[in-house]
Input
Amino acid sequence: MIKILIADDHAIVREGLKQIVAEESDMKVTGEAENAAELFTLLKKDNFSIVVLDINMPGKSGLEALKEIRADYPGMPVLILSMYGEDLYGLRSIKAGASGYLKKVSAPNELVIAIRRIVNGGKYLSQSLVEKLAESFETNTKLLAHENLSDREYQVMCKIAQGRSAEEIAGELSVSVHTVYSYRNRILEKMKMKSNVEITQYALQNRLIEL
Output
């Protein structure tokens, strides 16, 4: 039996994923978490075949949780499930140790295939993501400005570029507004920028967000 642990802060998403795998006789969702704390509590209590992890959870992000899973449970395969496109988080997720990256809109058609491939030791990546991964490992490739950001800084940068206010970002990440401003200042310093407008222009030019 393939035992699946789903970590997503939206109950309706978790229910939808459970319905997708319900028709598979050898596959079952045996754990559900709505944040990273619940995720690690469940990992300590049971043995799972795979973690299906949302990238955008409150508190500790999916990317931060992924790195902790890699450190504490190095043999545990992780499939990142995200509402965001590959350009936004795909490459960063794979480099952090994910076994696959799947957009939520593709889940009805691809989730079962992705889980089977990963549990059997494979990877689940689109062709475009494979190409981006190969390009990123070329020795002559110069790091782009956003690649110097931490995962949390990168997450905040993308939200700023999408037009979110500091208050909105603070609510989504379960942090204080002061913390958001601290992240923003570090982002501007690392990327050698002076305003949110520059962040947005950069994100659009590098296809990190869509209008």
Q: What stands out?
A: The chain has two domains: 2-136, 145-205. The mean pLDDT is 89. Strands lie at 2-7, 27-33, 50-54, 78-82, 100-103. The radius of gyration is 17 Å.
